[in-house]
Amino acid sequence: MLKREFNLSLFVKRLFSKYYNSVSNFFIPKKLERREFGFIFFDGELMRRHIAFRDASDFLSFIRSNVPKHIYYSSAYYEYPDADNMNDKGWLGADLIFDIDVDHIPTPCKRYHDSWKCLNCGGEGTGNVDVCPYCGSERLRKKTWVCTFCLDTARKETLKLLDFLIEDFGFDRSELEIFFSGHRGFHVHIDSDAVLEMGQDSRREIADYVRGLGIDNSFFLRKSRKGLYRYVYDYDSPGWYRRLIRGIYSFLLKSSEDSLERANVLTPRIKNLLEQLSVLGPDAILESELSLREWKTLMENGISEESCIIDEKVTIDTKRLIRLPDSLHGKTGLRVAKLTYDELENEDILKKSIVFTKGVMRIYTTRIPRKVLDYDFGEIKSGVLEVPMYLGIYLLQNGGDDISLIKIL
Amino acid sequence: MAKIEVSLTKSYFRKYPFLPDAIRYISELGLTLEDLSYDTLGKEVISRAKEIINAVINSSPMPYPHEDPDIEVLSYLVTLIVMKIIDDRQLIEKFTTAFSKRCREYMETEQKDFLLYLATVFKWKISLGSENIILYFVDYLENIPEFRGSWKLVNRKLSQGWVELDRIELIRLIESGLKKYFSKQISDINVSEFQLPDPVYALVEEISRLWSTKLAEYDEIRAKYLKKDEKFYPPCISSLIESLKQGKNLTHSARFALASFLLNIGMNVDEVIEVFKFSPDFREDLARYQIEHIAGLRGSKTKYVTYKCDNMRSLGLCYWDCKGITHPLQYYYKAVRGKVPHVEKRV
Touching check for A217 and chain B: CB below 8 Å? Predict the structure, then answer.
């Protein structure tokens, strides 16, 4: 489209360079000299890792002169963070990290912006699938986008996670560092010496806890009479004993009799429970005597109401590299922004993470997702469009052959 | 949190010779390794240490503590020194397991105060709740014997970071804590072979010999296990193979679980590749690369072990309860010995 060859990668790199060379108060991880860093640069797709820095200024001058496309650092602290072999690094401890990514959460907006193509059979479709519905292959090329609805979903999930961390695990709000990932989710880092040396098993157990995995109904129920069961604890009980009641309550509140009927849940006893619910509130659940099967159905639904969808691998792996706060996401150009609890709850996440606010791009598209970031293209499917710089960068970098640049205005 | 204080009498040192107070008491006596080795006290200490280690190697019950606390504490220290010099991970594991079990039996008769004191020796955050004992979740998770059933955190009362425990559970956790504490004591010892007086050195030599004989026996038994017969596989692994045979595509973690299992029961890379040939997107070059990696022939040169049952469950690869089993390989070894574990499908 442009007369002279336009090098998108070089253009974005120049913008990134301007950002890294002018930004002040850049996030410096605690004990930086003990961390491993990894980078993906603009001229190659491979990650260069096992890199370490003496101090903050050493690190900052590196990123200012090399301008990486993606910056990662280890949640772990090592004796020799630059050793090439993981076994030689001398692991000293690791922050506790949670990753919430809308990739793992079903959202209705995905059919407006995501698509896939099977590399095995050539089938294609919209939305998000894990395996090709035609041939069962996992070799899929996916094109995914992020929109404000995705972010909102991930935000709600993150608030759920924070509730677990504060109420059940007793972390202080000041120990929780919340970051927008720069793409489709949020990261929560726990800055507490108490968790540093925890092994992978303990971390997996924490992940299982927030995911509600392994709840054994024999601890939650007791036999009452005639083969019926009652819930063991009351509404003030801590942990999952309280959450489960809350989860069952909200599941029942939002389900209509019809939907329960369709799900084969609406037995006479559940019907009775529904009636009691409007009088007694959650106490009705504690008063109920139900069959084991009925309890199991309610508990399963209660668990999915209350549990939190995290990418457990990130929490379990104590040697993982994660995106550095304040760095730019190479694909979206958005900043990995630090958020307070209140900001996460109430503020416009994109506002905090859009860096390239100035300028407009004129682009040509043969196929554009309906919703991208805070934009809704409505019925527009193709043609010439003018979009703000931050959106243009994302569209061009993620759009492949479908989107090209005409002019920077 | 209130500081927990107990006044320890010397009789505690007999039962718990590892206590910092016990070791301090002995060091205040001003005995050196050298003194120990030649007089009658020394002889008794050495023969006592030998008795303890022998019991460890032969998996027989730990001997009762010596009547004299001095001898018990000293022989404990000599035992640690022998462990340090021989420096065999498996032997240390056997020793710490056996010795913590011995302590557990004594703990069962102790007052709550003493148990709380023991927990503070490991620097656990522990306190008395309204009815029960409460322990900080990190200390809890790092020491529970298994990650399922009543130990699983989702099934516990967890509030503000504190997990409620009863006395019996606390004792079980302290047993795990002791194991780690003993290992740490061993690794913290600073002694070289050359400093050892002759009688202690002779003990090290004798124990090394005994232990190598034992290891050779283990190898023989292990060789018998490597029969690679599918009927001994745990249900999780059989079901992965079944899925492959039906042409289903396995996830990355499922492939890892299967390949590492087969390699660990003694299949070679080619035999494992044969199994994966059923895979719908099978490519021999890629499969070989990945399997060689898991076998430790490439990359980090680490031979990977199959996920344990807890991980299989978290990854959604396990839908069964195998009685008494915590690792798929453990199932296999038991089954090969003719003790096929009882399996129940989880609903």
Answer: no
Q: Any CB–CB contact under 8 A between B158 and chain A?
A: yes
The pTM assigned to this predicted structure is 0.84
Amino acid at site A395 = L
Are residues B213 and B100 both part of a single domain? yes
pLDDT in tens, A116-155: 889 888 898 888 888 888 888 888 888 888 888 899 999 9
Segments forming the whole domain that contains residue B45: 10-112+178-217
The rounded distance, in Å, linking the Cα atoms of A157 and A309 is 7
CA of B216 vs chain A CAs: smallest distance (Å): 29
Domain A23-102+153-206+311-355 has CATH 3.90.920.10: yes
d(CA A245, CA A247): 5
**Inter-chain residue contact B157 with A85, CB threshold 8 Å:** no
Beta bridge partners of B165: B133
Alpha helices in chain B (DSSP H): 10-15, 20-28, 33-36, 40-57, 69-86, 89-107, 112-121, 137-143, 167-188, 198-225, 235-245, 252-264, 269-276, 284-294, 309-314, 328-336
Distances (CA, A) of A243 to A283, B138, B190, B231, B255: 14, 21, 51, 42, 35
Tokens of B325: 């089993």
Q: What integer best gives the mean pLDDT of chain B?
A: 87
Answer yes or no: is pLDDT of B304 > 90.
Answer: no
Assess whether B201 and B299 both reside in one domain: no
Test A202 with B142 for CB contact under 8 angstroms.
yes
Interface check for B149 against chain A (CB to CB < 8 A): the answer is yes
